[in-house]
Structure formats: structure tokens, C-alpha cells
């Protein structure tokens, strides 16, 4: 997956080239990911605009977006949609485990996925604070919905600094075991088939 030069942004890359079912790949400049944008330099901001980004999905909590504001917060391309809530028993010091998080607030996950599906034509840039957990979850859901295999989703996740690939394997296995797959989880969470097809079309290279 090509890295993106967005000074001073980290974990910034294009998901283009990720293998999909049937020999297809993810379209270049369809789905981008990064950490938060409050440290972007003027050159970094210009680079985002030069990419022609049509939608920025900021998955951070509202308080994070206020404390570390995005330089795009007043732009029509920007949308803040907190992906996860703090669920009962949440322990920020515990090892990463996304399974309780996706079960606690499936409606938020569905809203973020729907926003990806409904975005205007052009690149969609997903980010959270570090570009790891919440970004990793939504990216995994999008790739899986488009037909990416588990190992390729895990491989992308592992490119992000500070990740344990087993965390993503556990999440994907959870979707299979408890929901009969990612598509079924998204449908149960409120994503309609039209939005699922829209994400497939957006990501799949012709």
C-alpha cells in the first residue's frame, strides 16, 4: 500500500492495490487512512487538497476533535463521526481488544460505514487520533465488504506503528463466529444493501 506524504502526519497511506476476491484490487485513491490532522504543516494541508479528497471522516470523539482541531473542520469535505463509545468495563490500560467496542455501539459503526458509502465521488480519507484503532476497524470493515481476505486486512493493519496483528485477527474471527461475517454484522447494525454495494463499487478497481 503506497505511503502518503502528508507532513507532519503519520500512518498515512493509500489502500489502493489491496487484493480483493476474484483477482481484483482496491482502486488507487479510493480509500486513504492516517492519524489526526492537527499537526499537519501547510505543506501537508496542501497535499491533502492536491489529492482531491472528497470526504474526511474523523472518527474521534467530539472532545478530541475540539481539543485537537482539524484544519479542515470548517470545510464541507470534513465530517466528525465518533466511531466508538466508552462501554461498561472499559479499561484503557488493557491490551487492545476491539470485540467489545464493535458490539457496544454498532449504530455508530453503521453510521461511519454509511458515511463512507454516501461520500461524494473521489478519495475518502479516514482518520482517528493515532490512525490505528478506530481507523483500523472501519478500514477493515470496508476492505472486508469489498471482498478482501482476512490475511490481507491483517497485513494492512500490521503496517501501522504499534499494532499487534493478532488484535485484528481476533476481530475478524469474531465477526465470522458471532455474526457469520462482516457483511452480516453490518447488515444487523443497520447498513442497507445499497450502501454495501456502494462501498464495493467505490473500492474495486475497474
Automatic annotation (TrEMBL):
The keyword Hydrolase applies. Keywords: Hydrolase. PROSITE patterns: TYR_PHOSPHATASE_1 (PS00383), TYR_PHOSPHATASE_2 (PS50056). Residues 96-143 form the Tyrosine specific protein phosphatases domain. It is an enzyme of class 3 (hydrolase). Gene3D superfamilies: Protein tyrosine phosphatase superfamily. Pfam families: Y_phosphatase3. One of its GO terms (molecular function) is protein tyrosine phosphatase activity. InterPro entries: Prot-tyrosine_phosphatase-like, Tyr/Ser_Pase_IphP-type, Tyr_Pase_AS, Tyr_Pase_dom. Its EC number is 3.1.3.48. PANTHER family: TYROSINE SPECIFIC PROTEIN PHOSPHATASES DOMAIN-CONTAINING PROTEIN, TYROSINE-PROTEIN PHOSPHATASE. Belongs to the protein-tyrosine phosphatase family. This is Tyrosine-protein phosphatase.
